Amino acid sequence: MPSSTCLRRFSQLSLDNASYAPIASRNLLTTPQASCFSTSRARYANPTARKGMVAPPKRGTKTLNVKKGKSAPGRDTGKRPAPGERKAMRKRIVLSNINALEVRTLKDLDKANVLSKNNEGQVLGLPNEVVDALRAVEAFKTTQGWSLFRRPATLYRKETTEVAELIKQVEEAGEGQKKTIRRVLIGDRMSGKSTLLLQALMMAFMRDWVVVNLPDAKDIVIAHTEYAPLPNSNPTQYTQDAYTAALLSQISKANEAVLQNLPVITNPTLPIALPSKSNLKQLADIGAANPEASWPIFNALWAELTKPGRPPLILAIDNLSHIMRHSAYLSADVKPIHAFDLTLISHFISHLSGQTSLPNGGLVLAATTNSNSPSSPAMEFSLEVAEKKRYGGEVPRWNPYKHVDERVTSVLRDVEVLKVGGLSKEEARCLLEYYAASGMVRGRVDEGYVGEKWSLAGMGNCGELERVAIRMRV
Amino acid sequence: MARGELSRGLRRAIDSLGLPRCERSIPVPRTIFRPTTARCLSTSISKHAELVSETPEKFTAAPPIDFDKQDGKERGKKALLRTLRVIPASPSYFSAKPTFTGDFINLSALLRKVATLPTIPAAEAPKVAWKTIDQYRIMVNEPVKTQRYHKMVHILRRLNCIHPSLMPEEVTQAMLRYKKASQPGDVKPKPGVIDEWGRAKGVGRRKTSSAVAWVVEGEGGVLINGKSLSNFFPRLHDRESAVWALKATQRLDKYNVWGLVTGGGVTGQAEALTLAVAKALLVHEPALKPALRRAGCVTRDPRKVERKKAGHVKARKMPTWVKR
């Protein structure tokens, strides 16, 4: 019986380089890539060696490899997300959390009670159809904590009641004296400006208004959508067909119930033929489907909506400071285009400045932001003046050595502001109790707890309160 | 005391020998405390300062011997001899350290005298800062050994433990000689006042930040440099630090705070505010001091950035060792 050494020698015979010496010297590539027919040797090579441990490097070899790029060692070979997947993930709006407890006592808002004063200081649920509509107009933001709760609900705070009051004023105005109320929402960072805007849109949806919402002004001006000069305009204005088409589709989707019942009564001259006896939803859908005709269709839709007998309108925009400066678009002679020269924005601005009014009454709302706002000194100054006029205090004066954007100051000259401040202790308590009922706050919600969180949240700053009570929980 | 007697006795002795009057040798204080060359930098100058301020006892010369003044009865040589007879005034005259030995003997005698008086535990006795050995050496101008001095301080401590209500005046006077000029508790900070608007002011420091806080009764609002707490401190931890004095005592919803902070970084500012708020709160409620001390809001944190040293990369980091 041959010894084991002998057998092993035999099995490795074919791998022995010495036997290929003559060819190997001429061409390395021709060396046969044979493998040993037994794998047991490698498997049992060193049973005592721990997993993950490798032998120490040879003396004199370079072991540190900090190369980047394709030849980098230990490169992550995992699958990359598909184009657009990351952004979709980032922008995903989650409105429900099945792990959160369902709040039994949560009442829903409805058309009758949405403007009632009795709602103040309560957390109330949003009905599903309104949630869908709000989602369609992109009123929910990723930074808001909707994903923490079972279903969307919102706190009716003092400022909400103020907005409800404005809506009521518009609705109750008699024929011939319809009001267009304009407000700019200002306030600290995370104080709930965008949420208040959402609440205003929610009320408008419930009261069967037509809602036109520009969800984020930044998207309009950062030159991510195509643009073209508007023919026969002087000074040159620029249309954004793709964006306008998307806006039309949003309008059509969100206001479906209202627009379906409104027939086209004028006879607009459009690049695309309109079927006879069509309604406004069809009109908007045609615009959404044909981006090249979207701007004329938007105009036609607007003309229809401002005809007498039509429902009131709400026009809203978030991130106001982005449109109060030059946009990222360039004109034909490579000059930056002022944001006011974009047709959609100039349309909005003409309503915000009060130059154009809404014949059927309505609300023009703009929310500023503090977390992602490019500096716009003229806007900041105008809003500060407006704030001091409204809430008292010494009206500041413009620094004469600074360049002033006249177009911005003229637009914001007589605009009114609505300051979104901190919650009162009662409101904070109500909110914390809702958190507790949803299972997000474990401790007892008592006077001391509410007072502490209220103080730590910077005197009831709404977003900070959420951070302090829920997100930063230790 | 002893020194005067000693010198008088000495004088008497010299005179009694009938030698021609010689210039009295003025005892020069031996330089016990030599300012050593500064070998290391020290920030604590207090020890040196208090030694410098220490002055040796006044040397009082003995009055000249009056040969004419004699008793009426005895006349002649015998009486004169009695006048001239050398009697050391102090029993410790012939010891090497007469003043110290005299002090020690006196204190021992005093303790023997008052030993039967009731005492209180040492922990409850009034806090006294006794002179350090160096101060005492300069005072008596004698090379007193540390151990001996410690023994004396032991006696003093025992004397200090006599029940305060029964403390004899004699003992109080005797102890006075060995006490430092300034005693703990002598310097009392001015008590804070609540002004006409109900504000109490507190000042706090940490690292290079300094904070002033005004605390008034209210409902929990905090404004720092005119901004709300959440605007001024984005980090939650810093917010909690700033109002920790109120939070730890469950007073957060009972006071309003206005703070002004300057200097330093965010954490330093927050912790400077802790101290300032705590001090202002103590003006409102002095009884909270133990609770605040437990919460760590009373003592100023003395830690600062350590200075960079020559030859080091940072305060302590050394340059990398390089082989030649």
From TrEMBL, chain A:
GO terms for cellular component: mitochondrial small ribosomal subunit. Pfam families: DAP3 (PF10236). Residues 48-88 are annotated as: Disordered. Belongs to the mitochondrion-specific ribosomal protein mS29 family. GO terms for molecular function: structural constituent of ribosome. It is found in: Mitochondrion. Residues 59-70 have a biased composition (Basic residues). InterPro entries: Ribosomal_mS29. Residues 76-87 have a biased composition (Basic and acidic residues). This is Small ribosomal subunit protein mS29. It comes from the Eukaryota. Signal peptide: none annotated. PANTHER family: MITOCHONDRIAL 28S RIBOSOMAL PROTEIN S29, SMALL RIBOSOMAL SUBUNIT PROTEIN MS29. Keywords: Mitochondrion, Ribonucleoprotein, Ribosomal protein, Transit peptide.
Automatic annotation (TrEMBL), chain B:
GO terms for cellular component: mitochondrial small ribosomal subunit. Residues 303-324 are annotated as: Disordered. GO terms for molecular function: RNA binding; structural constituent of ribosome. GO terms for biological process: translation. Residues 305-324 have a biased composition (Basic residues). It comes from the Eukaryota. Signal peptide: none annotated. InterPro entries: Ribosomal_Su5_D2-typ_SF, Ribosomal_uS9, Ribosomal_uS9_bac/plastid, Ribosomal_uS9_CS, Ribsml_uS5_D2-typ_fold_subgr. Pfam families: Ribosomal_S9. Keywords: Ribonucleoprotein, Ribosomal protein. Belongs to the universal ribosomal protein uS9 family. This is Small ribosomal subunit protein uS9m. The lineage of its organism: Eukaryota, Fungi, Dikarya, Ascomycota, Pezizomycotina.
